[in-house]
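User: Run a structure prediction on this.
Assistant: Running it now.
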Amino acid sequence: MPVYHDDIMISPKVEGGAGDMGSHGHFEIQVDGKPYPIDSPDLTGLQIKELADIASADQLFQRLEPSGDTPVFNDTVVQMHSGLKFYHLPGSITAGSHHHNGQRPSAC
């Protein structure tokens, strides 16, 4: 049974399945390495943050291999498809900045 979170319908996790969860608009994305099954064709950056319980002031990035990462602003609309990966950083840090050990976040 779907669960609603701030007007976003979240599908229950399907065991044994990875990637696309069907042909009816069910997708699985990752935020900070955690999977989130969703049922919306697109989400804003703010909706992705709310889904993953991330502060609205924090920065959200979409992982784009091999071309690099791109910022996703609160009002940016992202078309959903399975396999999208996002991560967040505190509001004052930008992508590519040095972290504790000079590495990107490992949860991605």
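Helices lie at 45-51.
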